[in-house]
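Ticket #4471: structure output looks truncated?

Reporter: J.K.
Steps to reproduce: submitted the chain below (64 residues) through the standard prediction queue, then opened the result file.
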Amino acid sequence: MGVLRITQALLNDFDLKVNHKRVYRLMKELEIQGRGYRKRTRKYDSSKGPEGIRVTVCKIKLEI
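Returned output as attached by the reporter:
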């Protein structure tokens, strides 16, 4: 859990209004670290289209 989540948990569970900077300072003193940020993967790729299948363009060679 990160600083903001711990701050919110203290407020919800124990009715303690604690500033997030104080929580950060205490976490730093106690050497507690939250989990790192994970970038979410995209679920929609416009090149695949709404069905999720890649659209290929037919290339027709015209011989004159």
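Triage note (M.O.): checked the attachment and the full token line is present. The CA atoms of residues 4 and 61 lie 60 Å apart.
Status: closed, working as intended.
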